[in-house]
Write a structure and sequence with these properties.
This protein is of the alpha+beta class and 136 residues long. The strands form five sheets. It has a three-stranded mixed sheet with strand order 3-2-5, with no helix packed on it. A two-stranded antiparallel ribbon has the order 1-4. The chain starts with a strand and ends in an 8-residue tail after the last helix. 9% of the residues are buried.
Length: 136
């Protein structure tokens, strides 16, 4: 009487390259169960797709408003402007230093608007400094 496993289970974990579509084997696990004549073989393939932020197997939090990349919860930012609040990836986020809230994430449009506003205020304060006293 030949002893062979009743059930063999093989699990393969691969990472799929989003550009080329090729699979790279990360982990291969083979499990053998109860020995009797005849066996049932099954193979389970788990495909991991890396997100644009570089994370693998993390929950998707959203897509970047500017480029459409899929981003996980650890690498998604939302524009601090109350009228915008667009989701942004780490490539398209700009940070503004704030005394009250630390660094605030902003989209490109609102970052440029904020920069214009602060530079205009500095020029105005410089030109009017001989006549008025300003508190920033």
């Amino acid at each position: 009487m030949m002893e062979s496993p009743l059930r063999r289970k093989k699990k393969i974990t691969v990472i799929r390259d989003p550009k080329t579509g090729e699979d790279r084997v990360v982990k291969s696990l083979e499990e053998k169960n109860v020995f009797l004549d005849g066996s049932l073989d099954s193979t389970e393939v788990e495909v991991l797709v890396p997100l644009k932020c570089g994370c693998i197997n993390k929950e998707i939090a959203g897509t970047c408003f500017q480029c459409g990349n899929v981003v996980c919860a650890d690498h998604i930012y939302f524009c601090a402007d109350p009228c915008c609040c667009q989701p942004l990836c780490s490539e398209h986020v700009y940070f503004v230093d704030s005394e009250k809230n630390g660094k605030l994430p902003m989209c490109k449009f609102h970052f440029k608007a904020h920069r214009r506003k602060t530079s205009n205020r500095k020029i105005r304060n410089f030109l009017l400094a001989p006549f008025f006293e300003f508190e920033d």
